[in-house]
Write a structure and sequence with these properties.
globular; Lysozyme; mainly alpha
């Protein structure tokens, strides 16, 4: 059984236990506006993909499947998960930030450990953990997407300290960029 079959089986079981509907089946439409084409473009920076680039290239339909399954399981809008991935790693599963954040959703090692993510570079674990984390932030900030996004970037303590989006230029730009991406993915 492959990881996607495992995820589908777990999602079905969760839906069965919680009596919630399953996430819809994934269909990726070809064309310039499809999520798959956006991911392919972002991952390749407009150039043909080369194995020597050192990227952990995950086919766009698999990223979309992981996003949809996890978004459905955690009750998060898939467009928000896609927007975070786009802005955190540009869909590069091997991305590592200067602060040590890892993978598609750029999980800090401590956060990954708290979430039960053993390998933050594994796309399935990373998206599972990152989606779970944003779900928790949305709950903590009473569904306020702007504050949850700010907390994803600067930490929940900073958002609470300032009573809103912290006055950090990088965090303020991040929030606007993620919201712009969210609107783009939501419109698809």
């Amino acid at each position: 059984m492959d990881i996607f079959s495992d995820i589908t089986a777990v999602t079905r079981r969760i839906a069965e236990i919680t009596s919630q509907p399953l996430a819809p089946a994934i269909s990726v439409a070809p064309g310039p506006a499809s999520f798959a084409s956006i991911v392919t473009s972002a991952m390749s920076d407009g150039a043909p993909l080369q194995p020597t680039q050192g990227r952990n290239m995950i086919p766009p339909p698999q990223i979309e499947q992981l996003v949809n399954v996890n978004a459905g399981a955690w009750g998060v809008d898939p467009a928000l998960v896609k927007a975070i991935i786009a802005n955190e790693s540009a869909f590069d599963a091997n991305a590592t930030s200067e602060t040590g954040a890892q993978g598609l959703m750029q999980l800090e090692p401590g956060t990954a450990a708290e979430l039960g993510v053993g390998n933050a570079y594994d796309p399935a674990q990373n998206i599972w953990g990152g989606t779970r984390y944003i779900r928790g932030l949305l709950e903590r900030f009473h569904g306020d997407m702007r504050l949850a996004i700010a907390a994803y970037n600067a930490g929940p303590g900073a958002v609470e300290k300032y009573g809103g989006v912290p006055p950090y230029g990088q965090t303020q730009a991040y929030v606007e960029n993620v919201l712009d991406s969210y609107r783009k993915y939501k419109a698809q």
